[in-house]
Amino acid sequence: MARGPQGKEPKLKGMSETYDVAIVGGGIAGVVALAAARRAGLEAIVLERQDRIGGLWRDLPAWQDIQISALDWTLGDLPIDGTTQPHILANIEAWVEQFDLADGIWVDTPVECARHAGTMWELDTPRGTVHSRHLIAATGAHNTPVIPALERTSSTVREFHSSALHGPQELVGRDVLVVGGGASAFDLLDLCFEHGARNITWAYRGLRWFMPTSKPKYVAGSVRGFAQLQNSGLTTAEQSTAIETDLRSRYAKYGVEEIMPTHPFDLEHDQLIPGRAAMVAGFDSIDCHQATVQSIANGTITLSDGHRFDADFLLWGTGYSVDLSYFDAERSRASRPLTRLRRAVVVSSAAWTPLISTSLASA
Predict the structure, then answer these.
(1) C or N: which end of the chain has fewer Cβ atoms within 10 Å?
(2) Highest mean pLDDT among 72-81, 232-241, 327-336
(3) Which of 296, 300, 263 lies closest to 175, judged by CA?
């Protein structure tokens, strides 16, 4: 029998009975959704494919951290002791312990297919089919690391996605290529400086807005100023303009205009990414290329702009894709952008959580 993270056996309904809510995924979103559902008096169950809870935060390297301060991250009355992976995982486990959720979590229970059948959802698992009136997809927007396809010939370059670089100390004295133009790539560039990489090359196809700063991420990532802006009465477009004006002044102040995006900042599509202090301070020593990786032959990397160089490490800061292939109606469209999937999401009248309802089955 699948067990919860504390070793407790889940309370099982007969397969002919129906839950109010089935939650796919036992990461932070799934655990919080379960706590909220129980608080609302609903019969709920979490279905987690791994043997323990935590989702992405269970497997990430210890250096991975959140984009905001620990205080801003805190949910309810369970503060976290820090901002890195061990602290976040401990916080997720604390939710399970504090609210006695273990008996509502089935681990080692991957959902193989979820389909809507009339008035309820049917979720096929190796243990049988679970029936539920509502379904929450809590598998996250960061569940499948993306590594672009490229030509490799007898490659000796060591490659790591940002989600799998568990030994950044190995970068010391090495020649490193970082690929990507967003938060993950910024993190990897910071690591290169922190761990003494010899030469750093950066290749990016496009660039994301970020907030250049000399402060640590957990300080620069405070959302308090943004919250005040949201309460100012400005429209979303006006807020976007105000933020872009501030960001442009920061790019100029820190001398990183070379990597300022060409598109306007749009609050509905762009993240407020805090800067990486080491990356900003060492920017002049980074060999930047607006290009993609074309090929690797032995230890030589060729970029799409024709630049060729030797490297010891290639670090992929290319983000994640969203895998919703367990939805029967979504199997052929599982890679659709989240902005399009929004049309298939409705919000329940209950105050505690959004529910993916019947519209997803026909979207």
Answers:
(1) N
(2) 232-241
(3) 300
DSSP state, residue 265: P
pLDDT one-digit tens code per residue, 115-160: 998 889 999 999 999 999 999 999 987 889 999 999 999 999 999 9
At 211, is the pLDDT very low, low, confident or very high (cuts 50, 70, 90)? very high
User: Domain residues of the chain, as ranges?
Assistant: 18-143+322-362, 146-316
Count other C-beta atoms under 10 Å from residue 346's C-beta.
13
Over residues 254-285, the pLDDT tens digits come to: 999 999 999 999 999 998 899 899 999 999 99
The domain defined by 18-143+322-362 folds into FAD/NAD(P)-binding domain (3.50.50)
How many other C-beta atoms lie within 10 A of the C-beta of residue 297? 15
Residues counted in the chain: 363
Q: What are phi and psi of 94, to 5 degrees?
A: -65, -35
DSSP SS3 for 95:
helix
Q: Using alpha carbons, list the distances in angstroms from residue 176 to 57, 107, 200.
A: 26, 38, 5
Tokens 């501030």 — which residue? 246
Q: Please identify which residue in the block is written with the tokens 């193989």.
A: 112
Q: 225: Cβ–Cβ under 8 A, 6 or more apart, which residues?
A: none
Q: What is the CA radius of gyration of the chain?
A: 22
Give the orientation angle of helix 28-39 with respect to helix 85-98, to 10 degrees.
20
